[in-house]
Every structure is written in C-alpha cells, then in structure tokens.
Amino acid sequence: MTDSAERLVWCKDTIAGGVTQHGVGGTGRPVLFLHGWGLSGRSYEPALRRLLAAGRRVYAPSLPGFGGTAPLAADDLSLASYAAWVADYVRDAGIETPVDVVGHSFGGGVGVRVAYDAPDLVGRLILVNAIGGSAWRDGRGVVRPMAERPLWDWGFQLRNEVRPSKRSALAMPRIVREAVPNLARNPGVVWRVASMARAADLATELATLRRRRLPVTVTWSDRDTVIPFSSFAALRTALGDPHSVIVSGGHGWLIDDAGLFGHVLPDLFAERDDESVRRPAA
C-alpha cells in the first residue's frame, strides 16, 4: 500500500484567476513541476511520486489550455503570459518561496520566464529537455537560429518521439489520455503554443539568470530529437556552463522511465561542483 505522503491528489480549484486542475501532495520543501506541451502533470505521475518519496511537497498545475485548466486569452499567448499565470498560481496556492522549479520541454521555457520575471519566487531552476536554446542544426549540419526551424521538422521529430518502444509502452496510455482531450478542448491554443515553443529563443533571459547567479541544472537525453544537442548546448552556453546531467533516453524520458528520474534526482538537485556535465551510472 502506498503511504499517503507518497500520493498526489488531483483536484480542480479556482486559482490564478480561473479554474485550475492541479496535483498536490507530499511533505517537506516544495517543488513546482511544469509539464510539457500537450500534456498535464498527470502524464508524469510516476516520476512525480519519486519526488514525494524523496521527501518533497509537489505542486503540479496543468498550465492554461491544458489538462482542464482555463486557457489564457487567445490574443495573449506568450511565454511571458504563461509565466505571469504561474506566478499567480504560486502566490494563490500559498507555496513557500523561493521554490524549486522543475520544467520539462515547454514547461522548462515557462520556468525560465518565471525566474526572469519574478526572481523572488524561484530559488532553483531545473530544466529537463527544455525549449529556449537559440540554435538548431539543419539537415545539412549547419547550425542556424531556432526561429528558422521549420514547423514540419519539429512535428516530424515529435512524431518519432511518440512511437511505442518497450520502455514507453506503459507510458503511452497516460500520454494519449492527456493529449487527446487537450486537442479536443482547445485545438487552437494547443497549436499556437506549439508554434511558440518551436521557435522560442531565451538567450537573453538565460544570460540574465546567469548574472543573477540563480542555481540552474540543465538536463538533456542522448536520443532527444525534439530538443537537439545544439539547442541543449546553446542553453548551457547562455547560462555560463551550469551543472548539467545527460541521461539515456528520448525527449520524454522521465515519462517513459520514472525509475531513471528517481535515480538522477540527487544529481538534478545537486550544487554545482567541479564536474560540469554528469552522466548517471548505467
């Protein structure tokens, strides 16, 4: 039987100016988890339970337009507006600040903007295969600005990421259960956010976090084609070579393999040391 301290309770509340679906559970120092594009915190529940088991209190809101949370205004879809919503959520939910923020993919980009716009709220930032790197390598191997990456290329790589594998077979039902309703409820929002995420360049914001000396960990997986290595490298450069962790897996490795996420938790929350890039033991 799972101890109550290791369970997330999923509920619907009026927070941050509207209806918000979110998961809350655990005890100890709080962690705010921001999910990736098209999904919600529920897709990551096995991984989030590892945070609970590590003695952390977890807050996992569905970002506006996803997972049943009320969308933002159609004319106000930007990373800045999502970050403002997250800041309101933190304050309205009564989360102790500064809080550790973990953001996967699109959620990582939102986390960067939260730390940039509301520095008092964020004590540590953990970017997991996050958007925001300014570089993309095209089919000829030429490094180009991320804004020049065609939507078809991004979509093609995303399609490859969701192909079933032995490791992802158990995770796939959770992904489908969240992604399909999101597309049905708010198709326009979902696709506009996808376009925004595809071209996100957060070099300026990342450089500011570097000057502020915010503790940041950058994580990437060696088979990620949605966020290529060139984008990961650009994130690290903008942050001034932060503490980094490379794992084995695709873009959604923490969904596919919660055990691996639990294994690297000490590295994710570690202070910067002399070894810039750390690779977990196999």
From TrEMBL:
Recorded GO molecular functions are:
hydrolase activity
List the protein's name.
Alpha/beta fold hydrolase
Which Pfam families does the UniProt entry name for this protein? Abhydrolase_1 (PF00561)
InterPro entries for this protein:
AB_hydrolase_1 (IPR000073), AB_hydrolase_fold (IPR029058), AB_hydrolase_sf (IPR050266)
State the superkingdom: Bacteria
Q: Where is the AB hydrolase-1 domain?
A: 30-133
Q: Which UniProt keywords apply?
A: Hydrolase
